[in-house]
Design goal:
The chain has six helices and 14 strands. It has 265 residues and is of the alpha+beta class. The structure holds zinc ion (ZN). The site of zinc ion has 8 residues, from α1.
Length: 265
Amino acid sequence: MELSSILKKLETSLDDTVNYFMDSTEGRIHWNTQIGKTVSLEFTGDIYCVHCGRKTRKSYSQGFCFFCSQTAPSADITVVKPELDKSHLGISRDMEWAKENNLIDHFVYLANTGNIKVGITRHTQIPTRWIDQGATEAIRIAKVPYRQLSGLIEVSLKKHFADITNWRKMLSGTYSDPVLLKESAKKAHNLLKSEFEKYLIDDDITSIQYPISDFPKKISSLNLEKQAKYSGRLVGIKGQYLIFEDGTVFNVRKYTGFSLKIVFV
Ligand SMILES: [Zn+2]
């Protein structure tokens, strides 16, 4: 089967394991059903802005044209640095967008992505956010009414927990340590008690299984701008990565807006 797709991050649903989906010219692809098969990926050379849809020579901030990267609310610095958000003060690139995306409940969580990390997300993005990061388990530790507050809590925990996913570690195995995660949540609550007590919440651990059996020993990330064509046997999917038998991994989200020809053999 041959198809084309302008990449967006893989859509997911959580059952016993995570299911991964992609829209294409041949309809919705359920990637789990392709595991074990040989897949060819070919970058056509075209990139389309995720915001305005126009062709762009380069992708900025994971999928935007230069103009949109400077103006679109979804490309604002507060997406990655929530502590800088000012929409609760009425300041934003787009207040209507901010009302729907920033001035809503956010959660602060701890996740196990190979090590314990702290993160924040809109309440609507659980468990999607955890799946996108390849977490094997996660727990919510605080609930706040707007984005900046979640950023402030995250910043105060960064001295004690990692805040980025080590993707090599995340893709090199399935780490599970619910006891450590529960203890870490307790530790975080103690650290936050004096300043943020009214926002702290108790939560049960969510466990997440990914459709992958064998983790390759040595991994290398496919760079579509250097290597436009790749073919290999798909052995699994974790986070937003397709994982191939030879250790090649492909970060779908990173190539948002890229036009790809995909062949399933
Ligand atoms: Zn654009």
